[in-house]
Design goal:
Elements lengths: L3 E7 L6 E8 H4 L1 H13 L2 H5 L2 E8 L8 E2 H15 E11 L3 E10 L2 E11 L5 E9 L1 H18 L3 H24 L18
Parallel strand pairs: 3-8
Antiparallel strand pairs: 1-2, 3-4, 5-6, 6-7, 7-8
Helix pairs in contact: 4-5, 5-6
Length: 199
């Protein structure tokens, strides 16, 4: 009988305990996935890329203009991420035969960011592709504001870092203002805050 592992986590909304899956550790590369998670929690870029194939690909949540390919590029990105992010913790872990879905939370500049990760595995169980998504919008723009300059500095592009800092600050300000002022206009009735009229 193949070795199995149970993944459980707290449902942040309802407080329920969720059993994510029973998986064959040999089939889904539990060691690589666990190593990736442990490295993220420890903010250790080197340990994270050790769980990847040499030609792994990371799909950014910020743009479709480019992707990070190979351990060197992903290592450089993760170093920048761990420079600006803190309190990194995983919450959900759902695994299939050749993939895993993870959710995590972190803080950047005091803003909580909720991240979704889709990991694809090769035949040996190493991580070969990572696709990321981030919510809510203000968290995405604060990530853009912090990560762009940090990554450009690591790439030895100081002028680009300054330009990205200015552009990121503008996008972040627009997103935060919109989230406070305009997004609530589309809120469902159950979420609206009503102020009692004076008698």
């Amino acid at each position: 009988m193949p070795e199995t592992v149970v993944r459980a986590g707290d449902d942040a909304v309802s407080g329920r305990i969720l059993i994510a899956s029973f998986v064959d550790t040999k089939a889904v590369g539990v060691n690589a996935i666990d190593a990736w998670k442990q490295a993220g929690a420890a903010r250790d870029a080197g340990a994270a890329v050790a769980a990847l194939t040499t030609d792994a690909e990371l799909v950014s949540p910020l743009t479709d203009q480019f992707r990070f390919r190979g351990r060197d590029e992903i290592d450089q990105l993760l170093q920048a991420v761990f420079e600006v992010a803190s309190d990194y913790r995983y919450e959900r872990d759902v695994r299939g035969d050749s993939e895993a879905f993870l959710t995590s939370r972190a803080r950047i500049a005091g803003v909580e960011i909720h991240e979704f990760q889709h990991l694809e595995l090769d035949g040996d169980g190493a991580i070969t592709r990572i696709a990321l998504a981030v919510r809510p919008l203000p968290a995405l723009t604060v990530l853009t504001r912090a990560l762009g300059p940090a990554l450009a500095r690591r790439q030895s592009h100081p002028v680009s870092a300054r330009r990205l800092a200015r552009a990121g600050a503008f996008l972040d300000a627009v997103a935060r203002a919109g989230d406070r002022k305009y997004v609530p206009l589309a809120a469902p009735d159950s979420s609206r805050v009503t102020t009692p009229r004076p008698l």
